[in-house]
Amino acid sequence: MKWSNYKYLILRRIVQLTLLFLYFGGNVYGWKVLTGDLSSSSLFTTIPLSDPFAILQMFAAGAAVGLNALVGGVIITLFYGVIGGRAFCSWVCPVNMITDLANWLRRVFYLDKIERKVWASRNIRYYAIVLALIVSFISSMAAFEIISPITIFNRGVIFGFGAGIGLLISIFLFDLFVLKNGWCGHICPLGGVHSIIGKFNLVRVEHDSENCTLCMKCKDVCPETQVLNMIGKRSEFVTMAECTNCGRCVDVCDDDALEFAIRNVIKDTKGE
Amino acid sequence: MSKEDKKPKISSRRKFFTLMAQNVGLGVMGGLLWTGYAAKAKSSPLTLRPPAAIDEEDFLRTCIKCGLCSEACLNRPSNIDKESGRARPSTLKMAKAEDDVTIGTPFFIPTEVPCYMCEDIPCVPVCPSGALDPQLVTNDKQELDPTMMDMGLAVVDQNSCIAFWGIQCDACYRACPLLDVAIKLEYDRNERTGKHAFLKPVVVMNACTGCGLCEKACVTEKPAIFVLPREIALGKPGSHYVKGWDTKDQQRVQERVGKDVTTHTKRSEKKPQDYLNMDLEY
After folding, report:
1. Any idea which fold A202-270 has?
2. Please, which residues have CB within 8 angstroms of residue A228's CB and are 6 or more apart in sequence?
3. Which residue of A has its CA nearest to B29?
4. Is the ipTM of this complex over 0.85?
5. pTM given for the model
């Protein structure tokens, strides 16, 4: 067990748990660092932060969204759009801990090797975004927000879990037994929104195929394997929108073939 | 595409349309299930919302489910227990999956924790999405005014209220934060004993904010005074009833513009003498 093989994993868990703890303390102890929840929060009671997807759904439902929520949505969109990419999914979202656990158990018990064939497109999430907006429009309320396991988990930590915990267990079982990376890698429309927002961000994993020994450990751990299509072939950045910047590939690589770097967005995306 | 082929030939066009139909079918199925759940997930009409909540339909559209109102309610200075230094339970709860309220939206149950009508109304200005509108509780002097809150209306069940039996109880009257304004005591002679008085609590419709302190204070096993959303508690006479003795209401008749409301039928065209005798044969 080398520290460098777990660096980003541990950092991510620290960030995820710290955020949850700050939210929890914001309610239970009245801390003023981070109040609210992942739908909308307030940093030091002054800077608003909001979930852009929730705001989109509210628009679709016909709401006159308040200024603070809008500004918060813009701040979050800019942060992930410029710096974080899809980092929300792996560094912030609490459901990531559930699906990572399911994924880890899959590897430990070789569930992948004896999996039933279940076909599902990784683009379902993008259709789910459209569907969420349509249902929001029809039902006059933010449709994903009433079923979102992300906010159910998040609010559960802050205000106490209720029957919603059943949904979280369902997602765990789904990812463990039905479909590998089922929720985060196929269905979750919030992940889709963050993929779109983070398409042209700066911080990305860079692959150096000179150093690559084709051990394929990175592809084993990657929750969005398709983004690592250049491994051992081309030295380039991971450019696909679905990369969550989780850094597990960087962690497990023993050959210095993968590292975070700042990419030249204009040059990298010109060819597409 | 000859008909002689034994195996059905799957052309790329057929494949495209079939896959498309599958996707659309799945999407429609998901959408219908989702819409059905959303229709069921709307709150019970008996839900009591935080002060300054906009109309329920707009509230469900606009609430972003962040819980800032609930946290402000919990952590307000007046809620800190002086002995233990800890916050007491907050009035506003965030709905869980099992509650009869849309998940993640704030509500309160007066018998658990009523609204204490804080002077500064800490729950309202923190709302980022506009689901709680400070304008609704701002008075002419541009101050937040708790007497303008409108969460519901207290209703008295006169059959189970022991004050209406003649037993002396003014628990709700004394618990009311708008003492002698929102609940008044009506004095009445008790004919049964001939020498006692009824002290009947009467809710003043326009003053009551629906805070629920009366419901919490009520001494009967199940409260005889309870808060209902105004939509549920109030009837509606309709605009065609006019208080003739009220000059302001009478004004409505003068100002009324619109279409002719006289009913025209075949008979009404004729004079009464004519149409009353119209069908008679001599």
Report:
1. Alpha-Beta Plaits (3.30.70)
2. A207, A218, A219, A222, A238, A249
3. A131
4. yes
5. 0.84
